[in-house]
Amino acid sequence: MKKLNVCLVNDSFPPEIDGVANAVVNYAGIINRSYGSATVVTPSNPQADDSAFDFPVCRYPSLDTTRLVGYRAGMPFSPEIQRRLDEQNFDIIHSHCPISSTLLARLLRERIDVPLVMTYHTKFDIDIAKAISSKILQEEAKRMLVENISACDEVWTVSRGAGENLRSLGYKGDYLIMPNGVDLPRGRVDEELVAQTCRDYDLPEGLPVFLFLGRMMWYKGIRIILDALKELSDSGRDFRMVFVGGGTDRDEIVDYCNKLGLEGRVFFCPAIHDRNIVRAWYCRANLFLFPSSFDTNGLVVREAAACGLASVLIRGSCAAEDVDDGETGFLIEENSRSMAEKLETLCQCPETVKRVGLQAQSRLYISWDESVGNACRRYETVIENYRKGIYPQHERPSDDFIRAMSNSMEAWDELREKQRRKVMELRQEYRELKEEMSSSRQRLKENIAQYLERFM
Predict the structure, then answer these.
(1) Where does residue 214 fall: left (phi above 0), alpha (psi -120 to 50 degrees), or beta otherwise?
(2) Around 181, how many Cα atoms within 13 Å sit in the side-chain half-sphere?
(3) Beta partners for 312?
(4) Nearest in space to 299 (alpha carbons), one of 367, 345, 397
(5) What is the edge-to-edge ordering of all strands in the sheet holding 57-60?
(6) How many CB atoms lie within 10 A of CB 93?
(7) pTM (two decimals)
(8) Which of 122, 91, 120, 117 is nearest to 106 (CA)?
(9) How many CA atoms lie within 13 A of 363 on its CB side?
C-alpha cells in the first residue's frame, strides 16, 4: 500500500472528549504508525496540550460555544490556516463533522485539488434542535448541513442507523458504512487495578453493579436508567450504579437522582482519560446500561464487549445493530418499565449475564487497527476515483461561496506576499542606508583626525 498523507478535520478534539474526538485520535495515531502520515486540523482551545500526540495538530480560530452545543465552534475562513495547510501536500482530506470542519475541508479542496471524504458520526438533527428553538431555522440548518455533506466526494456512515438518519434529513446521495473500532484490547485488566479504581465507592461483592460511561446528557437515555433503578429500589432489589463521564446535563442528572432517593446506591465519577482505568470500570461492572437511541454507533458497547461486559440496549437503536438479544446483549423497549423488568430478571441469572458478555467479546469486538486499515484501503480507491473524475460534480449554491472565499484568500495571500516583499525591500534599503551612514561617519571621523593632525 502506498504511503498516504491524510488531513483529518474535526470540530472536537482533546481536551474535549467524545466518541468522534476519540475516533480522530485513533485515525491519526494508526495512520502515522502504519500507513503514512496524518495531520489533525481542529479548533483552538485554551486548555489544549497537543505535545502528547505523536502526530501534528493544527489549530485554527474558534469561538467558545460549549454552553450551546458542548464544544468550541471553529471559524474555518482563516487565511493563515489555509496557507499552512496548502503547503502540506495532502493526498486526501477526511472530515468527521459536517459543519465548520467540512466548510474548511471544502475550501482546502478547492485550493489543493484532492478528494474529500466525510464520515457522518452523529445524529445532527438532535444537536440542531437542542441549539435552535425555531422550527423554521432548524429546517434551514438541516438543509445547509445536507448541502455541505452532499458537496463531499464520498460519504461514509458509522452504521446503518446513521445512514437512515442522514436520509431522513434529506440526503439523497450514496454512502458507505465504515464502522469505527475500539482502542481497548480484548480481555480483562489486572484485578488489583480494578480494586484500586473502585476503592472509594461502596460496591459490595455479591451485589449487581451497573455501569454507564459516556457524556452526561439526557438524550443518552439516562432518565430511563434512573427511573428503572427507582423501580428496582422500590421493589426491594439491592444494587449499585456507577455513572462515569461529564456533560452539560450532569448537575441536573445528579439532582434528579437525589430526588428519586437513590443516593448511596448510585455514584457519579468524572470523565476518565486513562484508558486502563476505563477498562477497570468495565471489568468491575456486571452489566453496561446504554438505553440511547441518539448514538449512531455506540462505541462504548464494543468497549464493554472488549472486557467481556454485556450491554442492555434499546431494540432497533443504532447501538444495538449486530446485537442478538440474549446472545451478545440484551434488548429492551425505550422505557423505564422495560429496563426495570429486564434488570430484575438478569439480577437472578448471573451466569447468563456472564455468558452473554463473553459472546459479545468474541463477536462484537472490532479493533481500531482493523477499522482504520479498512479506511486507508478505501482512501486509495477514493483517490483513484477522484483522479479519473468518477465522482459527480453537482453544482450547489454554496459552491460559488466556497470558490469566492478561496479566491478572496488567494487575493489576500497575494496582497500579504506583496506587503512582505515590500517590507523586505524597505528593510534592505534601510540596511544599505544604515551601512552608508556608518561608512560616511567613519570617513568624517578620519577627515577630522587628518585635519587636526595637520593644523595642530
Answers:
(1) left
(2) 19
(3) 289, 330
(4) 367
(5) 57-60, 36-43, 4-9, 92-95, 116-120, 154-157, 176-177
(6) 26
(7) 0.73
(8) 117
(9) 14
Sole residue written with cell 448510585:
266
Residues with Cβ within 8 Å of residue 164, at least 6 apart in sequence: none
Q: Higher confidence at residue 12 or residue 404?
A: 12
Q: Highest-confidence range of 49-53, 389-393, 439-443, by mean pLDDT?
A: 49-53
Q: Residues with Cβ < 8 Å from 236, sequence gap 6 or more?
A: none
> How far is it, in rounded angstroms, from Cα 401 to Cα 189?
52
- How many other C-beta atoms are found inside a 10 Å radius of the C-beta of residue 451? 10
Domain 4-181+370-394 has CATH 3.40.50.2000: yes
Amino acid in the structure at residue 195: A
421-434 confidence digits (pLDDT tens): 666 766 777 777 77
C-alpha cell at 9: 478535520
What are the cell numbers at 398? 454554496
For CATH 3.40.50.2000, the residue range(s) in the chain are: 4-181+370-394, 191-365
**CATH code of the region 191-365:** 3.40.50.2000
Question: Half-sphere exposure of residue 446, counting CA atoms within 13 Å on the CB side?
Answer: 6
Residue type, 35: Y
**Cα angle, residue 155 at apex, residues 319 and 75 outer, rounded to 5°:** 95
3 state SS for the chain: CCCEEEEEECCCCCCCCCHHHHHHHHHHHHHHHHHEEEEEEEECCCCCCHHHCCCCEEEECEECCHHHHCCCEECCCCHHHHHHHHCCCCCEEEECCCCHHHHHHHHHHHHHCCCEEEEECCCHHHHHHHHCCCHHHHHHHHHHHHHHHHCCCEEEECCHHHHHHHHHCCCCCCCEECCCCECCCCCCCCHHHHHHHHCCCCCCCCCCEEEEECCCCHHHCHHHHHHHHHHHHHCCCCCEEEEECCCCCHHHHHHHHHHCCCECCEEEECCCCCHHHHHHHHHHCCEEEECCCCCCCCHHHHHHHHCCCCEEEECCCHHHCCCCECCCEEEECCCHHHHHHHHHHHHCCHHHHHHHHHHHHHHCCCEHHHHHHHHHHHHHHHHHHHHHCCCCCCCCHHHHHHHHHHHHHHHHHHHHHHHHHHHHHHHHHHHHHHHHHHHHHHHHHHHHHHHHHHHC
Whether 107 contacts 82, CB under 8 Å: yes
- Tens digits of residue pLDDT in 109-121: 989 999 999 999 8
Q: Give φ, ψ of 95 to 5 degrees.
A: -95, 140
